[in-house]
Amino acid sequence: MFKSSIKLFKIFGIEVRLDYSWFIIFALFSYYFGFFYFPGVLPSLNAGTLALITIITVILFFASVLIHEMSHSLVAIKKGIPVERITLFLFGGMAQIEKEPDTPFSEFIMAIAGPVASFVLAIFFGIIWFFTRGYALVEEPVKYLAIINMVLGAFNLLPGYPLDGGRVLRSIIWKSTGNLERATFIASTAGRVLGFAIIAVGVFFIFAGNFLNGMWLAFIGWFLQSSAQTGYRQTVFETSIKGIKVEEAMNQNVVDVTGDITLQELVDDYFMKYRFGRFPVVEDRETRKIIGVVSINDVKEIPREEWADLRAGDVVRKISENEKVDVSMEVSEAIKKMIKNDLGHLIVMSGDKFKGMITKSDVMHFIKVRSEFH
Ligand SMILES: [Zn+2]
Q1: What is the dihedral of CA 229, 233, 235, 240, to 10 degrees?
Q2: How far is the CA of 223 from the centre of ligand 1 (A)?
Q3: Which CATH number applies to 246-372: 1.20.1250.20, 3.10.580.10, 3.40.1400.10, 2.60.120.820?
Q4: Is the pLDDT of residue 1 over 50?
Q5: Distance from Cα 175 to the centre of ligand 1, integer Å
Q6: For residues 274 and 136, what is the distance between their CA atoms, to the nearest angstrom?
Q7: 278-301 pLDDT, tens per residue?
């Protein structure tokens, strides 16, 4: 969903990106500050100063959002959880934290770090506000920044998962029940209720004549309730595959071919017969040492009249490290690898021996069958 983004810079090893949807909120904020808020509180300003103040305020606001996300991320890294990137988007910021925390305590402190950062920023801007009273040019922007950071911290503390407060709630239930799935269920149900409540407030605003703010709240509410649902499903899925190795979930009945068969044989006896998109090519049937993969697209690129002369070994494509996975790897890691490299399958190896293939549907199927016996 958030792939359409541009890279800004890298800090503490974390990539900071702007999603295209961020430009909408950037434009809305600049419009609001530049044409309504600052002209209202600072009526004597000329256009140039007004533009400058607007830009500085909007940048400081997004820097505040970034610092909030950065705090979550730095605690995560400290807890040994890698953070790949932070993306600023329509509804604020999102840190791409590679996995869920292992303990309720890690979750609690990771979650609380963001709102704490926002409150510290609110105090920081509040102090500047206190000492610059009377200098309207500084006072007005820092006053707004102090308030907005306060609101940001408070909103994120609302107890609905996946908001920070919902994560805090989850960590507390998790700690007291010892059951992460149950804790996620309760916290995400709270998140959905909260989402629908925010939508209701939004609709009320719309009917009260405050159309823009109402629409905005309704969007935020919808986003919250749908993320709560996805987050819960994700946790159930992760809990159900925890500890399962690739070896258990992979498909072992993969048909392999040897490099010496002709493409014509490959098409007639394999692609037409088994209707798989690709076949692993092995050196020989005994050792099953893998040479590479031949896919239907590779063969289609070659003119038909050459199929009788060319052999599978001539068109075989080497397997990159991204496409390989060891039998002993956890399924959850294998799925992450597929997603990261945008692949639908992985070739399962044991050393340099071909063992089978694993796809997302193999994993789903495995979980389904297994759950029927539990
Ligand atoms: Zn947060």
Answers
A1: 160
A2: 15
A3: 3.10.580.10
A4: no
A5: 20
A6: 76
A7: 888 888 777 778 888 888 888 888
